[in-house]
Amino acid sequence: MKMKNRKGSTLILTLLIFVVLIILGTFILNFMMNENRASLRYQRKVQAYYVARSGVTSVESAILKMNEVELKKLNEELDKGIVQVDEIIVGEGKANVVLDKDGDNLIIESRGKIGKVEDAIIKIMIGEQSTSEINIEHAIFSLEKINLSNGLIKGDIGTNDSIDITGNPTLEGNAYLLNENNFSTPDWWKNKWINYSIKKLENKRTYELIKFPQYPINNSTVDFIQGGSDKTTIKENKDYNKFEVNSNTIVYIDTTKNDIVLNIKNFHLNNGHIVVLGSNKLTFYVGEMIIGAGSSINYFNLAGNPSQISIYHNGTSALNISGNVKIAGNLYIEKAKLNMSGSGSILGNVLSNGSSISLAGNSDITKGLIYAPNANISFSGSGKAYGAIIGKIVDLTGGGEVIFDPQNIDTSLIDSISDSTLKFRSGYFK
């Protein structure tokens, strides 16, 4: 009886131990499976993180390589709201990237996905306003077309569109185009153009309109009219309704002690002359402007310092410079057409938002840049330019000449409407 009880007890103990082992084994198995799942999930989470990071890196790298045109387009899209980037494949994973702005800074948010596991990362790129660098490397650059039927060009030419050569012009330089097939010329002319060639223009060029300053308010009713034996020296800032100098009379502007600003509604020179004394700056703000034959501004004894004078013209009537008119200064034209003919001459830069600039007769623009991205610029007769030309369409006919002279090109004078671009540099992970 005792033996049976002992055997029963042993069986029960064995069963208990077996049950405990099964429970312990099940626990250990579940623990190991959970650990394995957690480990696998963690591994996928890490992979998803690095997929997301790769997405950020790819997008950041692309942004850092953008040119100004591409950056401008990106900023325009960001100003409208969040920008969704196309899905990026990274190995077995995918990265979905969105861009947003916080002030000037750019937020890159990337969500990486491996299977059903996701992770996200955010990087901030630092935004900085950058002044656009205006590159002028050609004797002529047109945003649309260049038409050459005669004349002489010393220096390279370039265009976003096409170049059409007829007649027998002389081109001592290469021709740069986005599409090299847009160069049209007779075979006989191309055969003699042997020292130069057609070159690929790598990127489309943009040249913005000029940003004009705010013109001072002019409520003056004062008329300044000089002629004959009149002799006047102006030594301070003045507003005029009319400023008129006639009959070979000289008006002196004395800048010895300070810069001077003359604000004039109607500016007339009828064989009249403006002579600058001193070395400080003289600025004209002019409405309508009429310059008669034989007149001059800062052009004394066949010379003058063009950097000393700025003439801002916002009238609508065409500005005509002809009949041996001489101007030494920088001429800014907001709206009007500019017509030069006879022996009219500008020693300095012409910067215009107008629609037309014409050089005919024996007129010339020397020691300066013609910057008129909205204008059709035409050379006929013996019109000449020494510096460089930026225009919408450029036509060269007759005996016109364009001589590239980088020493006479000062791009700091160009304050364009969108001359600052928001650029981004690498920042930090958030």
- Contiguous low-pLDDT stretches (5 residues minimum) are none
Helix content: 10-25%
Query: What count of domains describes the coordinates?
Result: 2
Shape call: elongated
Mean pLDDT: 89
Q: What is the rounded Rg?
A: 37 Å
Our count of helices gives 3
Question: What does it look like?
Answer:
This protein is α/β, with parallel strands linked by helices and 430 residues long. It folds into 2 domains: 2-132 and 424-429, no CATH class; 140-413, no CATH class. The protein is built from 3 helices and 33 strands. It has helices at residues 2-64, 68-80, 187-192; strands at 83-84, 88-90, 93-102, 105-114, 117-131, 140-148, 152-154, 157-159, 162-165, 170-172, 175-177, 183-184, 198-200, 223-226, 232-234, 238-246, 250-254, 260-270, 273-277, 282-291, 296-297, 309-313, 319-321, 326-328, 330-333, 338-340, 345-347, 350-352, 356-359, 364-379, 384-396, 401-404, 420-429. The protein is elongated, with a radius of gyration of 37 Å. The termini are far apart. The mean pLDDT is 89.
Task: Give the gist of this structure.
The chain is α/β, with parallel strands linked by helices and 430 residues long. 19% of the residues lie in helices and 44% in strands. It has a 27-stranded parallel β-sheet that branches. Strands 1, 2, 3, 4, 5 and 33 form a six-stranded antiparallel β-sheet that branches.
Explain the layout of strands and helices.
Layout: H1 2-64, H2 68-80, E1 83-84, E2 88-90, E3 93-102, E4 105-114, E5 117-131, E6 140-148, E7 152-154, E8 157-159, E9 162-165, E10 170-172, E11 175-177, E12 183-184, H3 187-192, E13 198-200, E14 223-226, E15 232-234, E16 238-246, E17 250-254, E18 260-270, E19 273-277, E20 282-291, E21 296-297, E22 309-313, E23 319-321, E24 326-328, E25 330-333, E26 338-340, E27 345-347, E28 350-352, E29 356-359, E30 364-379, E31 384-396, E32 401-404, E33 420-429
Parallel strand pairs: 6-8, 6-9, 6-31, 7-10, 7-32, 8-11, 9-12, 11-13, 14-16, 15-17, 16-18, 17-19, 18-20, 19-21, 20-22, 21-24, 22-25, 23-26, 24-27, 25-28, 26-29, 27-30, 28-30, 29-30, 30-31, 31-32
Antiparallel strand pairs: 1-3, 2-3, 3-4, 4-5, 5-33
InterPro entries: DUF7305
Organism: Tissierella simiarum
Transmembrane segments: 12-33
